[in-house]
DUF1501 domain-containing protein
Amino acid sequence: MLTFWGERQRYCDNINRRNFLQLGAFGAGLTLADVLRLKAAQDPSATKSTPQKAAIMIYLPGGPSHMDMYDLKPEAPMEFRGEFKPIRTNVPGVQICEHMPLQARMWDKLACVRSLISTEEHSDSLVSTGYSESTNRIASHPAFGSVISKLRSDGNNDVPPFVSLRGGGSPGTEPGYLGVGHRPFTPSGAGMENLRLANGVNVNRMDDRKDLLGKFDTARREIDATGTMKGMDSFAGRAFDMISSGIVRKALDLKNEDPKTRDRYKGVEQFLTARRLVEAGVGCVTLSYGGWDTHTSNFKELKRMLPELDRGIANLINDLHDRGMQDDVVTVVWGEFGRTPKINNSDAGRDHWAPVMSAMIAGGGLKMGQAIGSSSAKGEYPKERPYKVPHLLSTIYGAMGIDAGYTFPNGAGRPMYILDDRNKVEELI
C-alpha cells in the first residue's frame, strides 16, 4: 500500500487536510517486512483470493457541486441554475457541464448517478468505507483499499495491493479493525529508499545483505524456543523481493512514460500515476484532486478546476480503453456531499448539501452511457431512483468480484460485514 500527499487544503471547518503526493514508508514507522508479518499474523481464514480486477477511486475533497457538473438545471431560476450551461454528450438525452467537453464527447464510456444521498460530514469516511465518520469512531470499518489489501494478502509479493495518492490519517485511508498491516504504504523521502537499492549496493551486495540477515535470524532462532523466528524469515525475503523487483518504483517514475503522454497529463500527473500503478498490478489506487469547498466564488473556482479534472478523467479512461483494460478497472469520481442548490447571496458560493449529490463511474464491466436517477427541478433532493452512497460502493465491490456481504472478525472477534447496506445501483449491472 502506498500513500501520496500534497499541498494542504483548509476546509470551512478549519481542519487542514492534505491531498496527494507524499511517498514514504508504511504508516506507524513500520518496515516492509513488519507489515508483511502483521498481515500474516492475522486469521488466515479471513483471507481469500479475489479476481484480479482493480479500482481507481478519485476523491474530490470538500464536496463538489452537483448542480454545476453532472446535474445542471437550465430551467431553474437564476439563483439556482447559476452561470454554467449544459452541453450535449455523445449519448442522446444526457447533458453535462460546458466546462467538461472531453467527458461529453466520450460519455458512451462513462455513467453518472445523480440521485445519491449522503451525510453532512466533511469527511471521506462514507465514500471510502460506506459508514459515517461518527460510526467509524466506534466500529472502525475499513477503507475500500484496505479491504482489497486484506483479500489479496496472498497475491503478488512485488506489488502492494493498495496505493493511496492521498494523505493518510483520515478515515478513508484507515484499515480499521483489519489492522495496521493494511495501512497505506508510502514510498517517499526516506521511505522511497525502500523501493530502490541503497547507494553503492548492487544486486550481489544485496544478496550478501540477505545472507547477513540470515545469520542474524539464525542466531535469534537459537534463543527463540517457540519457533516464531522461523516463520518470520519469509517476510524479510518478501520485503527484499519488493525492493529488488523495482515494479512499483518504475510505475511511479513518470520518466518511463512516453513524452507525448506526459504532455497530455501535464498538471494532472496523478491520473497518469494511477493508470501506471493499476497496470503494474496494484488492486486499488485512490487519489484526490482539487479543493471543492466553494462557499465563496463557486463559479470562479470551478471554471479553473473543472477543465483540468475533465482532462484527467478523459485521459485516464481513454488510456484504459486503448489498453483493453476498461472491463478490468472500475473508476469512480465523487466527493463527500453536494452543494446547496440555491447560491448564497453574499459570496456567489454554494454551501454544504447532503440530501443529494452526483458521482461519475466508468469501467469494471458495468453498463456505461447513461445518467442514472434524477433530482428535483431545483436540484434539492432525489426525484427518481434515490440511492445511498453504500449502494454505489456495493456495486463497485461487485464489479471487483467481491461480495460486500463477506465478513471479517473485528478486534473482539465479532464477524463484521464489509457493508451492512448492500443494495446495488441496478442500472449499472
